[in-house]
Amino acid sequence: MAPISGSLRDLQAEIQGYADEYSLQYFTQVFEIVDYEQMCEIAAYGGFPVRYPHWRFGMEYDHMIKSHTYGLSKIYELVINTDPCYAYLLEGNSFADQKLVMCHVYGHNDFFKNNRFFAPTDRRMIDVMANNASRVRRYMDRHGVVTVESFIDVCLSIDNLIDPWAPFREPPKKGKAAAAVDEEEDVHRLRNVRGYLEDYINPPDFIAKQREKAKAEKEASKRKLPARPERDVLGFLMQHAPLDAWEADVLGIIREEAYYFLPQMQTKIMNEGWASYWHSRLMTERALRDSEVIDYADACAGVMSMAPGQLNPYKIGIELFRDIERRWDMGRFGAAWEDCDDLRAKAEWDQQLGKGRDKIFEVRRLYNDVTFIDEFFTLDFAREQKFFTFQENRRSGRLEIESREFAKIKNKLLAMLTNFGQPFIYVVDANHLNRGELLLGHRHEGQDLKVDYARDTLRNLERIWRRPVSILTMIDDKPKRIRFDGSEVTISDEPAAFRV
Amino acid sequence: MISRIDKDHSRFREIVRGKIRQNLRKYISRGDLMSRKGKDTVSIPMPQIDIPRFTLGGNQKSGVGQGDGEPGDPIGGDPQDGGQPGKGEAGQGEGQKALEVEVTLDELAAILGEELGLPRIEPKGSEALDTKKDRYISLRSTGPESLRSFKATFKRALRRQVASGTYQPGRPIIVPVREDRRYRSWRTEPRPQSNAVIIYMMDVSGSMGDEQKEIVRIESFWIDTWLRSQYQGLESRYIIHDASARLVDREVFFRTRESGGTMISSAYKVCAELIEKEFSPENWNIYAFHFSDGDNWSVDDTSTCIGLLRNVLLPACNQFGYGQVESPYGSGQFIKDIKGSFGDHPKLVTSEITSKDDIMDSIREFLKRGR
Fold first, then answer.
1. Which of A120, A370, A387, B326 is in the most buried spot, having the most CB atoms within 10 Å?
2. Are strands B348-353 and B319-325 parallel, antiparallel or unpaired?
3. Which of A160, A315, A399 sits opposite B74 (nearest CB)?
4. In this complex, do A63 and B97 lie within 8 Å of one another by their Cβ atoms?
């Protein structure tokens, strides 16, 4: 691994100049050049040079090295959300490829810096991860590699159970509110007008009993945990599960890293679309030389290609940004445009507003994939880009085009993107049945959980909670409960589905 | 830095080996490993070693795509299949990958051995067969010119010239003197050598169907793998027979389907001749395996077989294995005859294989004695 030098450094200066010209705002950009094995290693570690030891990184690495060896795929570029922003170039790529990658990276960098959803992420994550790694290594030295590693397995198994909006919420206020409730309120006494009868009307031992009862009730209500269904399952377990100090720390590490990677999943389409939009503009309008046109077109076509039955975020993203820019340039938005029924007028609609550039910069600042698609994925766009929904034909087992109906396509897309395709899972009750069992709830949005995975996940949760764990869900439209009691998994019927 | 991923990688490989061990029975009873055999390695398809999570997708597969086509048209490809080629970005979710793990045959044999609790084989007459071999791996300062090592001599001359300051980088001429010269020399190393041969015999008569042959094929593969890990340079020979027997190559052995009667003695005769001609029992560890459905032609022939076994084959072999594959046509009499005649002969192992699931037990039966 080495910093770039010579012609590549000149190239970076050149491209940075173009980026400035188009007023991209970026963190200081650092390029490093790596060979293929290093690239695979860094990619396996999610872009970071140092991570805690875990076999899953080895598996990723194995897979990447193999698919490279067999010529199935190639990692061109890798960029991480840090300040300064690090990106890795692959040694031996052609000069035209490096150029393309650099332009692309400046797009990502601008996105990391400006998009609202990246704002809460820690930009010094390289250091944080390295510190996490050394702590995990220390735990491994003390408690044994296998012990710690298998606990990491357990934690990873629930690392998608976090609350995407938690980073944007203010931390709950402590102090005043709690103190007010704490004011001791005495138990109810019968009204007594004659003082000397007090002991007779409200016998002291009865009052004492009542006080105790009230106290016990209060304790019980305090134990109602969580007060409201809680989406940050990881955070909840950190606070309330019976964990050793090192276990709680490892769980915290996994949670911290999961929150760090969250915005990348929330903005996959936009992020790639934005970077592709800018590599395309910077290359075609500035950086590209005549001799590189063919190579550039070839690389670009590869990135934008669509496999059947699969969405290419690069492709949708770039096309949507272009569409938005065109619409806002021509004034094709707002009530007048929406209400216009005249097809000819619509076809010729051009108010020459020139607001496109400003609009896409605004979009890249304020939106995430869900709001992006929700607002800008229009009927015209869906037609033009030939979108369809597909479904498995249960008889033949083949995937078949189901429909080209706009509403269906959009709903499906949004459903896929909401919560980045993960189920909504809440902690419902930490003292379920008053037996200290953990109860989770799955808010069913049309798709069932994979039952075999759910079983194994419950086993892992039980490892953390050390008491039976259940989840309320729906299977084939029927409310069900899956429960693991420490020795076996049972699935039983439930009277009603879980709702929040 | 590289060592980090190497550690994670080897942890991963360890876990993989554990999985292979767990699923060994499944891999053994399915024949597809053999078609994946490379020179020294086997690639084993493995279900994704996965971290379970609460994920969606219990019911019907569906999604959104882009492209031409009418509703109802099939679309190619599996939506779950891998990610985009090309660019990747830090921290995207893991896709589903079918995992192919390459394992060396030695490793596989070790796993098999551990799992089945197979003893290591003590080669017969190992002392007698210790050979001494001279290998040219060291250097001396004296020797015949024909063995002079140019490279070593050059190095020493260079070193001397640099040290004494006579080396001129502008005019790099190196002149070796007598003391610089180095000669290749040998070192004698004892090399325990144990020669082993496996002789496979298979009944290919009409009553042996494809399924029976598949079983034989799988079983011989695993026996082969195990014995190969125990001996260097294992030889194998293949004999097929119906009413007459012949020596064939591996390909033919597994492919042929003849349709004749069954005379087991013909195979035993060929086997005995082979041993006599090529593999003298003093110098060779001989393993013979015979697979048949046990439906011999006549009682006379069976007694010829037993005679051959008693007088020639059993004394010569480390072990003689007879595996009887159950077939819908065979009477399965032969195994009873053999057992009746030999009882618990230390060198004879018999095993009945009714289905693919029995292969593992049968292998254990054959190999557990460590002969």
1. A387
2. parallel
3. A399
4. yes
